[in-house]
Amino acid sequence: MPRARRQMALTADLVARTIRATESTGPGPDIVRNTETEWNAIVREMLATRPDGRDVWIFAYGSLLWNPAVEHVEERAGVVPGWHRSFCIRLQDWRGTVDQPGL
Hints:
Blueprint: H1 12-16, H2 36-48, H3 63-66
């Protein structure tokens, strides 16, 4: 007799079991972060140079889909032919330790 297929379910209890609070180690010594003033200047320059003052569209994937880092007024699903997602950003925070390497 064939076995019944089991249905997996992601529950709040299972998610809670994965939480491991850790302190951020911060950026490496060679990383220079922009100040809030510098970011504001970058945004002002970008907005000033957009064609005919049109809206700015941001193509997002990964965590930006569920936790956008910017205020926005609209979301649209889309496809960019010829492109694919690739997580190539080197992130060291929350990726393990020397003793327990992660991703």
